[in-house]
Amino acid sequence: MSQATPPPPDACAVCGAPIPRRAKACPECGADERTGWREQSIYDGLDLPDDSIESSTKPAKRGTGLPWYWLLAGLLTLAALVITVVGLR
Predict the structure, then answer these.
(1) pLDDT tens for residues 52-72?
(2) Which residues contact 13 (CB under 8 A, 6 or more apart)?
(3) How many other β-carbons are positioned within 10 Å of the β-carbon of residue 8?
(4) How confident is the model at residue 77 (pLDDT cuts 50, 70, 90)?
(5) I need a labelling partner for 70 at 20 to 30 A (CA). Which of 1, 14, 80, 88 fits?
């Protein structure tokens, strides 16, 4: 006789995502009864820091403008278009 598998928990113990009622695995992380549907995660007992990266060590943002060569290409294309239109008259 086969054993009935227990229903999944309401939320995944690994990633915290809600799990549908008849799901065989977590839709977010893939955890299932074989790999980790425990009431607690194996990492719950560890005293890990909440943030692994300090906010002061974030890299500085670079400018969001266009690189110089794209501006030059646009200006050359515009100049070629103007010369072509003026030359046709």
Answers:
(1) 555 556 666 666 677 889 999
(2) 31, 36, 37, 38, 39, 40, 41
(3) 19
(4) very high
(5) 88
**Amino acid 36: pLDDT:** 66
**HSE-up of residue 9 (Cα within 13 Å, Cβ side):** 16
| Residue 4 to residue 21: CA distance in whole angstroms | 15
Residues 20 and 7: beta-carbon distance below 8 Å? no
CB-CB neighbours of 24 under 10 Å:
10
In the numeric block, which tokens belong to residue 30?
A: 């893939």
DSSP conformational letter for 69? H
Q: Would you list the domain boundaries of the chain?
A: 1-47
49: its two tokens: 């820091």
**What kind and span of H or E run contains 76?**
helix 68-87
Model pLDDT for residues 15-57, shown as the tens digit of each residue: 888 888 888 888 888 888 777 666 556 666 777 666 655 555 6
